[in-house]
Amino acid sequence: MYEADEIQFGITRQDFRNHFRRCTPQFKLAAGAAEFAEILGKSYWAKDSRLADVLELVDDIYDEMKTPEVLELMSLISQARRLEDQLAEK
What we know:
Blueprint: H1 13-21, H2 25-40, H3 51-64, H4 68-89
Helix pairs in contact: 2-3, 2-4, 3-4
């Protein structure tokens, strides 16, 4: 019989950065689109996420995958940022 040991520790974004950089552009795009959706939905899990960071990620992906879908996502994120800025001004 095997015995399980519980190990508990926090995982930060920094822990994932180096591994994430080595992922495929398709995976990064899916992660960026998911984070964008979480931000729009005001998800608890995206409370520290910023549209500017997602836009930067997708812009980097566009350098690798020059597809209309990536360009469209960049446009949607840019529009959301503009709306966010307009709401902050009020």
